[in-house]
Amino acid sequence: MSSRVLLFGASGFIGGHVRAALEADPGIGAVICPGRRDHDLIDGDPRGLAQVIGDHAPTAIVSCVGRLGGTDSELIRGNTLVAAKLLEAASAAPPGVRLVRLGSAGEYGVVARGRAVTEEDACGPVAAYGVSHLAGTRLFRLAGESGIADTASLRVFNPIGPGMSAETMLGRAAERIRAALATGDAEITMGPLSAYRDFVDVRDLAAVIPAVLRAPRLRHRVFNVGSGRAVGSREAVRLLAETAGFGGEIREQGAGPQRSAAVEWIQADVRRAGEELGWAPARDLTTSIKDIWAAGEAG
Q1: Is 129 one of the annotated active-site residues of the chain?
Q2: How confident is the prediction for the chain on average, in pLDDT?
Q3: Mean pLDDT of 269-291
Q4: Is 221 helix (H, G, I), strand (E, B) or coil?
Q5: Which of 14, 76, 89, 162 could be a cystine partner for 50, CB 3.0 to 4.6 Å?
Q6: Tally of CB atoms within 10 A around 265
Q7: Which domains does the chain have, with CATH numbers?
Q8: Measured distance CA(165)–CA(170) in Å, rounded
Q9: What is the Cα–Cα distance from 27 to 137, expressed in whole angstroms?
Q10: How much is the pTM?
């Protein structure tokens, strides 16, 4: 029987690519994408969510809804409470429905330089953002391991690709390079670029969702989704500048985002997703950056 997937957050950067991946999968018969008018997953109540789930009778529910920034209470509401509401409302779904949510590499906190972090490593988030996602992941994991619900949390590392916003480091860099080229400025200013990040193409991230839904039984409830490679942020911005044809100076000043400023190194160990889901990242950083720039030029 074909799957019926209820996808929340389909209008966002990640959600749009997830929708495309789901709709392209021959094993999925329908992808239903409620908008905020139908139900606001962050501000709505579990009863309204249960009504939406009951109306559509999905075999899987995928949430790409969350918050990157805001106050501590906004982050908890956007990340932790969304996970809790999904679990509460899942009783309205048919038996066996699989719930999938996006978590974050921010759940890990500081990682030893040169080490790839695994799903079983200790978590010590350094800011409310990571705390809010870790709490959501633990709620899902508890529900899955206790048999209350069939759950999976994907710890997403640094998603990049066509359509990314200026809320992210490479998104800001692309916006500032484009503005400098338009005005003839000889420099752009960024925050600190000394950190190493694991940049995963959003299309590779999107491809893991159908893989999670295809798995007949999940042995684990948490999966890292990254490229498996740590790259210097400075190197990534310089590659973007070269791709754009910008030869000006890239200045660094100020502070980085609170959610990750204290983390100098992060790299995903993605073996679990490969072994259990048959998934592996397919795009390298150069391809992703070329496509980021091309998408901005076309837009």
Answers
A1: yes
A2: 94
A3: 97
A4: coil
A5: 89
A6: 17
A7: 3-161+201-227+270-282 (3.40.50.720)
A8: 9
A9: 27
A10: 0.95
